[in-house]
Every structure is written in C-alpha cells, then in structure tokens.
C-alpha cells in the first residue's frame, strides 16, 4: 500500500471515529397526534441534525386502530427521546422502559401537544411538569404562572380545567431565567410566530423551572396571566426540556418554522443530554418586534 493511501485511510478512519464520538443518538417518537406529526417529525429531525450534535431516528406507533403492544422502542440505545406524540397509552412495558430510561439519566424533550398525552400516567406527568386536556383538573396539580408584580413563579391550586388556548396569534416570549444555559445569550424578549398560546396547564410541577413565559391576553380568550412556554424538569437523573410552543396543522407549521422555536428546541435538546449548551445564537433570531421564520 502506498504511503499516501495509507495516510488517507488513516485520516478518514480518524475522522469517522471523531464524528461518531461527537454524535449523540436521538429518537423522535410519533404516530398519533391531533397535529400534523407527519409534517413536523422531519422538521424536528432536520433541525436536531443541523446542530451537528445528533444522529436522529424515528419510532412510529401504530395508528389508533393498531396493536399498541407492538410499540416498544429500545430507549436505552439513545441519549435523547423527543416526543411528537399525543395519542393512545403505550403498553405498561413501554411506559416502564421509558420511565427507567429517564430515571437513569436519559434526556427527554416534550413538544407542544406531547404535553396533552397520558393524563393518567403519573411518571409522565412528573416529567413534563405541566400538561393540558385529557380531563386534567385540580386533581392533576396546580396551575403555574409568572406573577409579574412579585416577579416570581406561583403555583395556584384553584379548581378548574387543565389546558386551554384562544385563537392562534403572534405573541411575545419573555425569558424568566436569563442565566439558564438554554436561554442564556438569547434576546430576553422575542416575537414568536403565529401559534396557539397554551394556558391553564396543570400538573405536579415538581422540580419545575419556568424559563420563559408569554402573556395570555384576555382579548385572545386568555387567562390574563404570564403562562409558561419553555420549561425544564428533572426526573430521577434525567433532564427534561418542555416546549409548549409548536402548533402545526391544516398545512401550516409556522409556529415550528419560527427561529425562536427552532433554536430553543435545539438548545433544549443539547441541554437535556449534557446539562450545557455549546450552540451559538444565530443572526436570524427574532427580535421583540419581528418574527423570523425558516423553512
Ligand atoms: Zn396545537
């Protein structure tokens, strides 16, 4: 073998090793959702991969007429699970495997209606901290919102439904934990593309950190409160990033095309795995008065 060829082979082997070491394995779960999961899973996959940090696979459940017992991904093969799922309960076996995955330090990211899922699965609700719909009520846990006067997060045990939203609109997202790695360095106020502004979410809210909120204006059938939009929790050794943003349906997904959504999703995913964020803030990040979209 010629020396130059040997060198080239050696170099490419080294590069390959470096690449595979750098890549964290992520799994997106989907298959049932009252949103356009077939359109958003490729979008989420593309932007996770665009960080250069992740290799992404997808696990799709049967549809709601199928046999859910066949859905049993090997969560342990991954560092990160992203849920783009809102549908039927998983089997007890799959629920137990997912709990074990996060409890042992696996990372989890919940996107938009993934927080509607599994109202009766206690561990899942601990992971997401807050959820909506599915019969959620005061039995699910408190409401959580930002009290502007006191400048702090409050938990409110008042009775009432869990989960609501008014008509979709553009709204301002405001950082409440500016030193947290997921949002550190981002503008502290940015205009989010047209989306549903989830309000009245309820849940165990244990180990919950509210990173950013949005004001749910009464004029838009909101609560007149600053509602949590970006959150983190921990479950066992696992870190969870929860974005309530990201509606998609009727052929539109501008809420997920919002650079604010994309960047906080990418940073939340990295943080959930490593506890740090190495990604730079892109130049096209939205400002307080201007929405910014990508494909
Ligand atoms: Zn939605």
Describe the structure.
Helix content is 24%, strand content 24%. It has 295 residues and is α/β, with parallel strands linked by helices. α2 (37-49) links the parallel β1 and β2. The protein is globular. It has helices at 3-22, 37-49, 92-103, 122-128, 254-257, 259-274, and strands at residues 24-30, 54-60, 80-83, 107-111, 143-147, 152-156, 169-175, 189-195, 209-215, 226-235, 238-243. It has one domain: Class I glutamine amidotransferase (GATase) domain (Rossmann fold). The site of zinc ion (ZN) has 5 residues, from loops.
List the helices and strands and how they pair.
Blueprint: H1 3-22, E1 24-30, H2 37-49, E2 54-60, E3 80-83, H3 92-103, E4 107-111, H4 122-128, E5 143-147, E6 152-156, E7 169-175, E8 189-195, E9 209-215, E10 226-235, E11 238-243, H5 254-257, H6 259-274
Parallel strand pairs: 1-2, 1-3, 3-4, 4-11
Antiparallel strand pairs: 5-6, 7-8, 7-9, 9-10, 10-11
Zinc ion binds at residues 35, 112-113, 196, 247.
The CATH architecture assignment turns out to be 3-Layer(aba) Sandwich
> What does the largest sheet look like?
9 strands, mixed
Rounded Rg: 20 Å
The rounded distance between the terminal residues' Cα atoms is 47 Å
Order of helices and strands: HEHEEHEHEEEEEEEHH
What count of helical segments does DSSP give? 6
Task: Find the CATH topology.
Answer: Rossmann fold
Task: List each distinct ligand once.
Answer: zinc ion
Instruction: State the oligomer.
Output: single chain
Give the total of beta strands: 11
Q: Low-confidence parts lasting 5 or more residues at pLDDT below 50? A: none
**Category from helices, strands and their pairing:** alpha/beta
Mean pLDDT across all amino acids: 95
Strand order of the largest sheet: 2-1-3-4-11-10-9-7-8
Based on Cα principal axes, name the global outline.
globular
Strand content: 15-25%
Q: Any idea of the CATH class?
A: Alpha Beta
